[in-house]
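Q: Hi! Curious about what Homeobox domain-containing protein looks like structurally. Here's the sequence.
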Amino acid sequence: MYGDCEAISSMGGNLVVSSETLFTSTFQNPNFTYLPLEPLPPMIPKEENGSLLRGKEEMKSGSESELQETTEQPLKKKRYHRHTAHQIQELEAVFKECPHPDDKQRMKLSQELGLKPRQVKFWFQNRRTQMKAQQDRSENVILRAENESLKSEFYRLQAELSKLVCPNCGGPPVPGGVSFDELRIENARLGEEVISSTFLLFSILCTVRVGLHFALTI
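A: Let's find out. The predicted structure is below.
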C-alpha cells in the first residue's frame, strides 16, 4: 500500500484512484504482512479497580485471621481453681461433722472462705465420692484377706482328713466320725429292743386270747 501511494504522488495530484484499486492493492502486494489484531484488556475504572484490590486484601487478611484463631484456639486451657490450705482445713472440719450440708450451710461457708456456693457444693460432692472410694477399697482388702484365710483353712482340713485312718482296720474312717465298734454296740442294743418288744407283744396277744376263750365258755 505504501508503494501505491508513492506511485500516485509521482503521477500528480490530479490522478483519481478508485476505491477498488486502493483496497485490493494491499492484498496483491507481496511485501505486505498482515498482523492479526489482539484483544484489548477490559477497561476498568480506577475507582472500581481500587475497590476490587481492597476487597481481595480484606478477604486475604480475614482468612489469615481466621486461620490464626483456629490455630490458637486449641492452645487455650481451662483454668482450675485451687483451694488454699486454710480453706481445705475448714471444709474438712465441716465435712467430719456434716457430710451433706444444706444450702444455708454452703452459703455460710462460701462467705467465710471467700468461695462461690457452687465451688463449695462441688467440693463436698468430690469429697463424698473420694470417701466412698476409700471405703470400697478398704472393704475389698478385708474381703480378700478373709477369702484367703478361708481357703487356707479349707486346704488344711482337707490335708488332715486325708491323713486320718481307722485304728482297727487301717482303712479310711467312716463318714460322720462313728467307728465300727460303736456301730456294733448300737446294732446289739437295737436287737435287744426288738426282742423285748416282740416278747411283750406276744404276751399281750396271749392274754387277749385267754380272755376271749374264757368269755366264750361262760
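A: A fun detail: The mean pLDDT is 70.
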